[in-house]
Write a structure and sequence with these properties.
InterPro entries: CRAL-TRIO_dom, CRAL-TRIO_dom_sf, CRAL/TRIO_N_dom, CRAL/TRIO_N_dom_sf, GOLD_dom, GOLD_dom_sf, PRELI/MSF1_dom, SEC14/CRAL-TRIO_domain. There is one protein chain. Helices cover 29% and strands 25% of the residues. The protein has 698 residues and is an alpha+beta fold. The chain folds into 4 domains: 156 residues, Alpha-D-Glucose-1,6-Bisphosphate, Chain A, domain 4, CATH 3.30.530; 68 residues, Orthogonal Bundle (Helicase, Ruva Protein, domain 3), CATH 1.10.8.20; 194 residues, 3-Layer(aba) Sandwich (Phosphatidylinositol Transfer Protein Sec14p), CATH 3.40.525.10; 113 residues, GOLD domain (Jelly Rolls, Sandwich), CATH 2.60.120. The strands form 5 sheets. It has a 7-stranded antiparallel beta sheet, with helices on one face. A 7-stranded mixed beta sheet has the order 13-23-15-21-24-26-25, with no helix packed on it. A 5-stranded mixed beta sheet has the order 8-9-10-11-12, with helices on one face.
């Protein structure tokens, strides 16, 4: 039915004013009626400045659109490209309607486009903005147009379209029969399925009622009992979002795949907008990998100062089965802890608490036989005073909140704030802007002894486990806090070195890359056919990654001193190995084509060495190319270059050499896989480069 609704857009569509007319160029129908391919020439009135149209010498532009309908496979593929100015601008667009792999009553819609502007009378930037604006507008109206024609069909009494079946002759020849689920009569396009962006995906729900989808079928990937036991109530759309995001991670993510419960937290944090959830989830996975957060409970022991003076700990569970964490913030010397430990140790301790919370949620899910994905936090503010508003302490608190919000969404089920004093509104004013709106709704604040009355603690926690310091009968083993002795305070230099040590306890190294000063790593290879592997994240700026080979060893590495550029991030460094007198092709050679890596991308790859000797991995600053037509930089390029502070980039990297017999992967080429966690490029393209048949896939 969705496909028939789409066909009503032609020869013109009143909901798309720019779509003036269309003519059929060619048409093909297979004998059995399963295949229908039609090619049209479409006339468009682009919303562009009058001056630009006058310079270009056209009032309308023409596109060629090819629609390929396969009734047997129940797919519709649409390809479109520009006919006008095709020698100056190349536009390609692809759309597809397919049956959802997990529920045949759903229609999946995918849309993507590419734009390549070679030259356009000096108005390249303007044309690009017009194209982006027009494309975004079309995406927003896509769902509205389908709904319009579905309603039109319904008014005409067409509520379903029988599925295509082969002619009688074909049926007799077929030796197998295919069972088909009945097509449901009602059509509903849910709002929650709408997406915006350059890669647009929609799910059109064609079930007659939500109950039909909730019941599930044997073909569903997620069993109904599994959902009820471990995930909780999910609508069909929410279940589909979970399946699609998990499948995308399995296909693109190189590291550990999080559990469904954890993926679901990120989806809920973004109201099941799959693109937004994917972005924050992948950023979090990169962060976890860089700092080895998955191993923090097994490898990191909190300093004794924290064990003695951090007034917080786990204490049974609330009435809903959520793990209960008690924090006596009013009794805690935040200034003393910061002075004795520094921000990084406090942050790491809070991360270990959150990791323990995730583990306890899994345990309670097994104990209570129902999904428990969050915990309750009880904060006692008795004793809170102006000392707690010490500026470095508040700064550390805000940073901790920021990190936790980004990487542990939807883990706080409820926050009970007790005995809030008069100074609390001041602290709340400072902290609340950094807390997500959904999280803020879970806060319950009690002043004085209000928590003992109706609507207080007893509504959320069993009487038997209310801590003794709150008037209960249960002994609470949470440390009482108190002032940290000044003899334990550390100097600023000691704290800085300790912070560096904490965050460099990782397999990754940090490096800074400057314009004119690349960072280089030397790897000596004794046995040919060894495999050099790498894994790096571009944290800031755009870089070019190169691999070189030399028969002789370079001079001992020298750290670059760039005056104003010598200040780098903690643990960062800049090492140059290739001597300026060396000549490419004589003293050393390039073994693979350069790889341009954008800010936010995560790159993993390998290279099979052909000769023994010295290999140099190089990360070099990527300069924006000047406009080819004029040899002068464009305004956009100049503005982009100004945004790169001090021409500085930063990468986090890890390299390893593996014997060919131990390597599990391609033994024929370099393979660089871009995860693109911050940009989330959904499409995967590849191009063959270099004389050694290397494949670079992004």
């Amino acid at each position: 039915l969705s496909l028939q609704a789409y066909e009503r857009r032609f020869p013109t569509c009143p909901l798309i004013p720019m779509f003036v007319a269309s003519d059929t160029v060619s048409e093909y129908k297979s004998e059995d009626g399963a295949i229908h391919v039609i090619e049209r020439r479409c006339k468009l009135d682009i919303d562009a400045p009058r001056l630009l149209k006058k310079i270009a010498g056209v009032d309308y532009v023409y596109f060629v659109q090819k629609n390929s309908l396969n009734r047997r496979e129940r797919t519709l593929h649409i390809e479109a490209y520009n006919e006008t100015f095709s020698n100056r601008v190349i536009i390609n667009e692809h759309c597809s309607y397919t049956v959802h792999p997990d529920n045949e009553d759903w229609t999946c819609f995918e849309q993507s486009a590419s734009l390549d502007i070679k030259s356009f009378f000096g108005f390249e930037s303007t044309v690009e903005k017009i194209a982006m604006k027009q494309y975004t507008s079309n995406i927003k109206k896509g769902k509205e147009i389908i709904e319009y024609y579905l309603k039109q069909l319904e008014e005409e009494g067409i509520t379903f379209v029988p599925r295509w079946t082969p002619p009688v002759a074909c049926k007799l020849e077929s030796s197998t029969s295919h069972t088909r689920r009945p097509v449901s009569p009602a059509i509903n396009v849910p709002d929650s399925a709408t997406k915006e962006g350059l890669n647009n995906k929609e799910i059109l729900n064609t079930s007659s009622s939500p109950s039909e989808l909730t019941a599930g079928t044997p073909d569903d990937k997620l069993d109904a009992d599994y959902i009820k036991r471990y995930l909780g109530d999910l609508t069909p759309i929410q279940e589909s979002c979970l399946i699609r995001l998990r499948q995308w991670l399995q296909e693109t993510h190189k590291g550990k795949i999080p559990k469904d419960e954890h993926i679901l937290r990120f989806l809920r944090a973004r109201d099941f907008n799959i693109d937004k959830a994917r972005e924050i989830l992948c950023q979090s996975l990169t962060w976890r990998k860089q700092h080895q957060v998955d191993y923090i409970l097994d490898t990191w022991n909190p300093p004794q100062v924290l064990q003695d003076y951090y007034a917080g700990g786990w204490h049974h569970h609330d009435k809903d089965g959520r793990p209960l964490y008690v924090l006596r913030l009013g009794q805690m010397d935040t200034k003393g802890l910061v002075r004795a430990l520094g921000e990084e140790a406090l942050l790491r301790y809070v991360l270990s608490i959150n990791e323990e919370g995730l583990r306890r949620c899994e345990e309670n899910t097994k104990v209570f036989g129902r999904p428990i994905s969050s915990w309750t936090c009880l904060v006692d503010l008795e004793g809170l005073n102006m000392r707690h508003l010490w500026r470095p302490g508040v700064k550390a608190l805000l940073r901790i909140i920021e990190v936790v919000e980004a990487n542990y969404p939807e883990t706080l089920g409820r926050l009970l704030i007790l005995r809030a004093p008069r100074v609390f509104p001041v602290l709340w004013t400072l902290v609340s802007p950094f807390i997500d709106d959904n999280t803020r709704k879970k806060f319950l604040i009690y002043a004085g002894n209000d928590y003992q009355g109706p609507g207080g603690l007893l509504d959320y926690i069993d009487k038997e486990i209310i801590p003794d310091f709150l008037g209960g009968e249960c002994m609470c083993e949470v440390p009482e806090g108190g002032l940290v002795p000044k003899s334990l305070y550390r100097t600023a230099e000691e704290l800085e070195n300790e912070d560096i040590k904490l965050w460099t306890e990782t397999i990754y190294q940090s490096a800074s890359v400057f314009k004119g000063a690349p960072h280089e790593v030397l790897i000596q290879i004794v046995d040919a056919s060894s495999v050099i592997t790498w894994d790096f994240d571009v944290c800031k700026g755009d870089i070019v990654f190169n691999i070189f080979h030399s028969k002789r060893a370079p001079q001992p590495p020298k750290k670059d001193s760039l005056g104003a550029h010598s200040i780098t991030s903690p643990g960062g460094n800049n090492v140059q190995l290739i001597d300026k007198v060396w000549q490419l092709g004589r003293d050393y050679s390039m073994v693979e084509s350069p790889l341009i890596c954008k800010e936010g991308e995560s790159v993993q790859g390998s290279h099979v060495t052909r000769w023994p000797g010295f290999y140099i991995l190089q990360w070099k600053f990527h300069s924006m190319p000047a406009c080819a037509a004029t040899n002068l930089p464009r305004v956009d390029d100049v503005l982009a270059s100004l945004q790169v502070s001090s021409h500085k980039c930063k990468v986090m990297y890890y390299t390893e050499v593996i014997g060919s017999e131990d390597f599990r992967g391609s033994m024929t080429s370099l393979e660089s896989s871009h995860s693109g966690f911050s940009q989330l490029s959904a499409a995967t393209t590849s191009s063959s480069q270099s004389h050694s048949s290397s494949m670079i896939s992004r």
